[in-house]
Amino acid sequence: MDFKKIFTKKRLIFIALFVIFAFFAQKINFSPLIGAENQFFTLFQFFGPIAGAFLGSVFGVIAVFTAELIDFFVVGKELTWLNVMRLAPMLFAVYYFGSKKRNLNVIFPLIAIGMFLLHPVGRQACFIHYSGQYQ
Residue 2: is its pLDDT beyond 80? Predict the structure, then answer.
């Protein structure tokens, strides 16, 4: 494995610029614009997954994970299961957008839909909601 071919200068510069831009983009909160005052939806969450399309799935995940890790330590977030689970959807989205494998492009959304429907709140929000009564 030739690391010079994998870690090219152009790729490393793009990853570094992406991480720097992502760090600042995580500070721009869009939640008040969409009416969710107590939430935190940032500019980074808008453009983060497209890193996979530019860098490929593996390097995209590395770039997003690095940006999230830097923000994690700078902000001083606590290492909890909830904070780790908030990171997971972004990493899966990056991998999904960068993946060229068609079977993965079907499996990840199906797993996400299944997990959504297994959650009690997700089950209530589902469009096809059966009340148990037939009319």
Answer: no
